[in-house]
């Protein structure tokens, strides 16, 4: 082979090899491109399959996971969109179950009752979308602590029937500095249409009443919308409640320490006159309008608890079974039965340490006594007006006795 023929052969071989190499390179590129294209399609199918297995149901739990100082009334609500709830469980941190109910449309859930303060709760939720695919959500939160919340203890009780003098009285367990905000969260209305005003006696007590006694037979409604209301810095209300009570017959009794008689009236007409014995000259009975706040068939009365002590510091009296006792003041004024005094004192002489005494019998079962009759014909909220004792008028906040304040002064004590 000549050199020229050899060169031509090498060139051809080189060209052929180059073509193979190029072809291999292109093929390799084509395979890679084809492989990438195949992987993209495969991944898309995987993503699509995963999406088809993911529920569209969107669960919302309130309060949010990790919340603290949550409301005991309006917390713990579960809702779902694009699906329906199938299971909701709520427990305390120690595993105690909290009862609740899923709504009829299966779109929401809430507890059956208010939660406890200063408690950690856990919620686990399952929901399904239209395809039956399940979604799950969990949350944990803590409710407001007693240190960071306040309660208003109220009287009278829900569903009770009371006398015409019964105010709505709220005693808060913490000092209220934002009185206006708290008062706005309290409304008192009557079917009688009477205007009702509230009066703050101090930082923890607010009473509400009309100008004149409640109308007989009317219904009074107290609404507490205090949940979340800041009563003082960092201290919030937790109550959300409606209370109703009925006003009974209009009974007002008039005690005259001069005549030593009590006239019991209904609708302004005297239905009975009862001989009494009021406070002795050295221990006069307060004057003024007093509301019966408690009734006891029998109770103990010890002078030491109200400042009547002898030289040894013992009570000047200690009677363990005072019959038919009805409280008229916080400081210890009662109208009650008296079995230890001579029957002759009633209607003739004032002998008590400041109470109003009625003739009675030990054991509180003698239906023939004045004490028995008055007790059984009186209800909490009835008014007893004490006159002509020579003592000062009872303080409006000593018991439920705000009627001893003028309407103008009463309204001046409102924070709104």
Protein architecture, described:
With 416 residues, the protein is α+β, with helices and mostly antiparallel strands. Helices cover 17% and strands 36% of the residues. It is built from four helices and 27 strands. Strands 21-20-19-27-22 form a five-stranded mixed β-sheet, with no helix packed on it. A four-stranded antiparallel β-sheet has the order 1-2-5-4, with no helix packed on it. The chain has a four-stranded antiparallel β-sheet with strand order 9-11-14-13. It starts with a helix and ends with a helix. The N terminus is likely disordered.
The percent of residues in helical segments reads: 10-25%
Poorly predicted parts:
1-35
Molecular shape: elongated
Strand percent estimate: 35-45%
> Which secondary-structure class do the elements indicate?
alpha+beta
Question: Ends: how far apart?
Answer: 122 Å
Largest sheet: 5 strands, mixed
Whole-number mean pLDDT:
89
Q: C-alpha Rg, in Å?
A: 40 Å
Placed side by side, the strands forming the largest sheet appear as 21-20-19-27-22
Total strand segments:
27
Helix segment tally: 4
Topology:
Elements: H1 3-52, E1 58-62, E2 77-81, E3 84-92, E4 100-102, E5 108-111, E6 120-128, E7 134-142, E8 149-150, E9 152-155, E10 161-162, E11 168-172, H2 179-184, E12 186-190, E13 196-200, E14 205-210, E15 219-225, E16 230-232, E17 235-237, E18 240-247, E19 251-256, E20 261-266, E21 269-275, E22 288-291, E23 294-302, E24 318-327, E25 334-338, E26 356-359, H3 370-376, E27 383-387, H4 407-412
Parallel strand pairs: 8-17, 10-18, 19-27, 25-26
Antiparallel strand pairs: 1-2, 2-5, 3-6, 4-5, 6-7, 9-11, 11-14, 12-15, 13-14, 15-18, 16-17, 19-20, 20-21, 22-27, 23-24, 24-25
């Amino acid at each position: 082979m000549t050199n020229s023929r050899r060169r031509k052969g090498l060139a051809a071989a080189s060209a052929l090899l180059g073509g193979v190499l190029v072809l291999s390179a292109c093929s390799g590129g084509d395979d890679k491109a084809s492989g990438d294209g195949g992987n993209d399609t495969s991944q898309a199918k995987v993503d699509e399959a995963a999406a088809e297995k993911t529920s569209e149901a969107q669960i919302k739990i309130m309060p949010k996971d990790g919340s603290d100082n949550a409301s005991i009334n309006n917390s713990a609500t579960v809702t779902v969109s694009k699906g329906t709830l199938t299971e909701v469980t709520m427990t305390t941190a120690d595993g105690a179950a909290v009862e609740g109910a899923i709504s009829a449309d299966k779109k929401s859930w809430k507890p059956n009752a208010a939660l406890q303060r200063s408690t950690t709760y856990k919620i686990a939720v399952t929901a399904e979308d239209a395809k039956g695919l399940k979604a799950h959500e969990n949350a944990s939160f803590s409710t407001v602590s007693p240190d960071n919340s306040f309660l208003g203890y109220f009287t009278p009780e829900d569903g009770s029937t009371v006398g015409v003098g019964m105010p709505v009285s709220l005693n808060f367990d913490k000092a209220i500095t934002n009185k206006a905000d708290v008062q706005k969260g309290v409304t008192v209305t009557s079917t009688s249409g009477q205007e009702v005003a509230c009066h703050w006696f101090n930082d923890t007590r607010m009473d509400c009443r009309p100008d004149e006694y409640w109308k007989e037979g009317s219904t009074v409604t107290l609404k507490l919308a205090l949940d979340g209301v800041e009563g003082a810095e960092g201290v919030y209300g937790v109550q959300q409640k409606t209370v109703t009570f009925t006003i009974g017959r209009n009974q007002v009794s008039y005690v005259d320490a001069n005549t030593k008689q009590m006239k019991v009236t209904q609708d302004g007409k005297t239905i009975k006159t009862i001989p009494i014995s009021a406070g002795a000259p050295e221990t006069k009975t307060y004057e003024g309008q007093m509301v019966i706040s408690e009734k006891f068939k029998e109770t103990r009365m010890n002078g030491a608890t109200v400042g009547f002590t002898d030289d040894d510091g013992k009570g000047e009296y200690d009677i363990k079974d005072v019959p038919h006792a009805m409280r008229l003041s916080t400081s210890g004024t009662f109208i009650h039965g008296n079995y230890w005094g001579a029957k002759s004192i009633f209607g003739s002489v004032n002998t008590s340490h400041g109470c109003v005494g009625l003739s009675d019998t030990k054991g509180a079962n003698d239906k023939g006594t004045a004490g028995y009759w008055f007790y059984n014909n009186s209800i909490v909220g009835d008014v007893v007006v004490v006159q002509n004792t020579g003592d000062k008028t009872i303080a409006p906040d000593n018991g439920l006795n705000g009627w001893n304040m003028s309407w103008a002064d009463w309204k001046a004590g409102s924070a709104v």
